[in-house]
Design a protein that fits this description.
The protein is α+β, with helices and mostly antiparallel strands and 172 residues long. It contains seven helices and seven strands; from the N terminus they run E-H-H-E-E-E-H-E-H-E-H-H-H-E. It has a seven-stranded mixed β-sheet with strand order 1-2-3-4-5-7-6, with helices on both faces. Strand 3 and strand 4 form a beta hairpin. The longest helix has 16 residues. The protein is globular and about 50 Å long. The relative contact order is 0.15.
Length: 172
Amino acid sequence: MAEPGKSEYSIRRARTADVPEIQKLIEPLVAQRILLGKERVVFYEAVQEFRVATLVDGTLIGCGALHVMWEDLGEVRTLAVSQDWLGRGVGHALLQTLETDARELGLRRLFCLTFEVPFFTRNGFMEIGEEIIDPVVYSEMVRSTDEGVAEFLDLARVKPNTLGNSRMLKLL
């Protein structure tokens, strides 16, 4: 069965020209402290990780990124949908696309750090505790300079920015 309204929009890989629109889309969520703000250069550096949902006229209505963290582990990042399109299947469609990308890359687990627990729960994610990876892998991952990896590992240095967020995981 098709997503409600799916014929009204499509999902594709992001392009560098989408970066300003991605940043504009997430600004209200950053202001509400739902998403962490990032400098524009960070979006350009990660543009290949993003998928976007656009209307036929090219208007960007949603975005989401898949960031590889380890051999079998990825993170869903910056999943956002325009206020006008909430509840119409756009977030679900973006997440499904990111999951397909993850499987194609050989990932078996997807992590997210979110305030949107009901949405991710409906999509098969479960809240997780602190010790979900092997200590040997932990010792390798802790060397990463990536903030998302630090959030996944629940390192003290990121806690002030992640208070109230839930750490969630889905097995693919």
